[in-house]
């Protein structure tokens, strides 16, 4: 599936130029919005290496990101997963909106993020880690976890800045399960930089300007009335993005658990293509 | 020191080394002007042509050959690219490093001659 979609996206990319300039992050959001009228199609598989006897899994999300206007970006995700020795599952959808709060570039640029998700307990995308999420959540077999409905509202405060070619971003996350569980908190932070700041005169695919390196860290911060680090899980993730001139971007980021509550590793891949001015 | 601490230190070092390996930002020297313009033209084709037209003569967005654009000081144009005009649909190009925004401005200003 991943290979087929990658080939499709590369073929789409060969069709024309687009303006992709993606950050290497998978979890952390920046203040950069989708260009108005442009649609980005992305496929982001995750290969999970859990611990405690949980089975390995492959999850994936299909992502459709649209620039409503210069300060508003909407995104729809469709999630699925396949756990070893279980059948493949569709695990739900998410719809998110990001609103840039200041219309000009400032030292720190705030963005408000609001998301509604309707997923099952078998979802393995790990788009964020909140509350007291731990590796033990994966011990329940997917065929049983799929019966657990999770209808959640999530808000993020995104703070992001660019300095001398570096991007530094931090996200504070609050997530509320509408079935009545307490609000859970989490964070994500990242920095990245292109390998070359100036563009070369000639078109090229493998030149340093097309590559960005980054580092992400994310994890849980407990829940309402129990904001603490004890019992939470955290991950650190080096990341690389390769922006091809035809609008296709490839990303790779292995996340490593940094404490005893974390999964061993979550290896993320991403391939995306931006279609400029689709509905304009 | 456990594995994760060593990993964190190593990764931080690699990222910083990658950043320090690149020269600090500077405006192009005159002898490099033609290659700067070519680089700017390449960036224009990638990021701007879909709205401003392949020749920057305007399409969904205004022409960049107009006197109001061509008479604008370079630094002002770079700042405009940085900020964009979000309510009117011009995106912020702060995601591009400042060096590339300057290359774009070099290219846009070279259009005056044509």
Overview of this protein structure:
- The complex is a heterodimer of chains A (280) and B (114).
- In chain A, strands 1-2-3-4-5-6-7-8-9-11-12-13 form a twelve-stranded antiparallel beta barrel.
- Chain A is mainly beta and 280 residues long.
- The radius of gyration of chain A is 18 Å and the shape is globular.
- Mean pLDDT of chain A is 91; it is low at 5-18.
- Chain A is built from two helices and 13 strands.
- Chain B has 114 residues and is mainly α.
- Chain B has six helices and no strands.
- Chain B has helices at residues 3-20, 33-47, 49-52, 67-70, 74-83, 98-110.
- The termini of chain B are far apart.
- The chains are: A mainly beta (280), B mainly alpha (114).
- Chains A and B meet through β8 and β9 of A and α1, α2, α3 and α6 of B.
Give the integer mean of the pLDDT values of chain A: 91
- Whole-angstrom Rg of chain B: 18 Å
Question: Could you give the distance between the termini of chain A?
Answer: 31 Å
Largest beta-sheet characterization of chain A: 12 strands, antiparallel, barrel
Number of strands of chain A: 13
Q: Taking strands numbered 1, 2, ... along the chain, how are they ordered across the largest sheet of chain A?
A: 1-2-3-4-5-6-7-8-9-11-12-13
Q: Would you tell me the structural class of the helices and strands of chain B?
A: mainly alpha
Q: Looking at the chains present, what oligomeric state does this protein adopt?
A: heterodimer
- Which stretches of chain A of 5+ consecutive residues score pLDDT under 50? 5-18
Percent of sequence in beta strands of chain B:
under 5%
